[in-house]
Amino acid sequence: MEYTKNQIKKLGSKIRKEYQLNDNISDESLELLHEYRVSFKEPMTKIFKIVTSESRNID
């Protein structure tokens, strides 16, 4: 799933508010944050492989 900047900003605000109110973050907010972070796995893996491959060509 792709997220817009606005959705991520709202999630960040929601997490800060939850934490300020009761020193706790809801499971729902944590799940959304986890999904957002996982969405970077595939592109990060591709970039890591490219960088690793290129680094082997450098003395």
Characterize the structure shown:
It contains 3 helices and no strands. The protein is mainly alpha-helical and 59 residues long. The protein has one domain. The radius of gyration is 17 Å and the shape is elongated.
Instruction: Return the string of H and E elements.
Output: HHH
Q: Kindly, what is the distance between the CA atoms of the first and last residues, rounded to a whole number of angstroms? A: 40 Å
The low-pLDDT segments are: none
- Provide a count of the helices: 3
Strand content: under 5%
Can you count the beta strands?
A: 0
Which class best fits the helix and strand makeup?
Answer: mainly alpha
Q: Count up the domains.
A: 1
pLDDT averaged over residues = 93
In which range does the helix fraction lie?
Answer: over 70%
The global form is: elongated
**Major sheet:** none
Rg, alpha carbons: 17 Å
Comma- or semicolon-separated keywords:
single chain; 59 residues; mainly alpha; 3 helices; elongated
